[in-house]
Amino acid sequence: MKHDFDIVIVGGGMVGAGLAALLGARAATVALRVAVLEPRPVRFPDPAEPWDLRVSALSRASQRLLELTAAWPRVAERGAGPYERMVIWDERSEPGREETLCFDAAEIGEPNLGHVVENRAVQAALLDRAIACGATLLRVGVESLEAGDEGVSVTTDDGRKVAAALVIAADGVNSTVRRLAGITTRGWAYGQEAVVAHLVTEQPHQRTAWQRFLSTGPLALLPLADGRVSLVWSTTPERARELAGLDDESFGACVSEASAGVLGRLSPGTARACFPLRLLHALAYAGPRIVLVGDAAHGVHPLAGQGVNLGFLDCAALAQLLGDAIGRGAGPGDRAVLRRYERWRKAENVPAMLLMDGLQRLFSAGHPLLSRVRRTGLGLVNRARPLKRTLMERALGLSGEVPQLLAGPPPISRRRPA
Asked: Are 153 and 162 in contact (CB under 8 A)?
């Protein structure tokens, strides 16, 4: 089969754009012909535009990926709110008591625990870097695909056919590529919806992420670079609809009460949005000349803020393995490479997903005895310094089987060879 591209990445969101930019930034993979299929327009927000509601808490490993691709300066210029502490407590306790769990970057010698960034700024910066490194952006979606021994033929929704050695599905939790490849999933709905908004605070957020576990789900306040906080309130669908329908004053009062007044009076600074929460995991991450990354492979509860960070680790692992394969003369669609990626990332993602699912279930149970267990557990973890250090390093992407690309700065080539 004659290939139009070596790799076709379906989906130009943060993860898909990040993978394309990373492939173009590395000397080992810079010569690959890469196409990104993204039908929706993507542009970097103008300086005067207010922040979009969709934000993410980027780990240190994710920050390194953006630095390696030269996208980080632009994202930081738009605004990257560092947070140095995370305070977690149960609704039957109070922040600051011995039953509070506090993570502090100073305890592990790090400047912060991550940055809260605007998703669309990250996406646009990475996609612009991918294009600058030689990737081709096609404003189309996928209609069908056919994988063979020598490559994959992709039919786009405008009727054209594109042949590639490898197709990478980065098209989200409802992945079209995953469905067309016949890869099945397991998962369940949590019976919760997340209410999101940006809030103006009476008291400064102190570069701290606050998370209170209520019986109906966790409420998180993430610090933004402009002094506001981003609310992610996971609750029942009925309560979510009720909150969405309140006037601003009533909504602010509800959030202030639900957060135990930890930042004083909270006032809405934006409109509100709601989205359902569920867990999803693909039974296979790879098939013949097809591989899944990001939410196409795993969708998780937002309580630990690890969704996009797991996706970026997928990107770095796959880029590293592809570079190694090319170095020894193998092609990007080599089955052994894809299987190794699948084993590697499943071994990292599955425990993380099970931990987040278990925490969500434990902390959403309203029984008073379980509440006492939760409070005792938070206090015990807070006093167990080695365990706290391990948890912080894991959340930062500094421990576990971290891709070598993100462990230190590898040689970079941002231009294609002549």
From this structure: yes
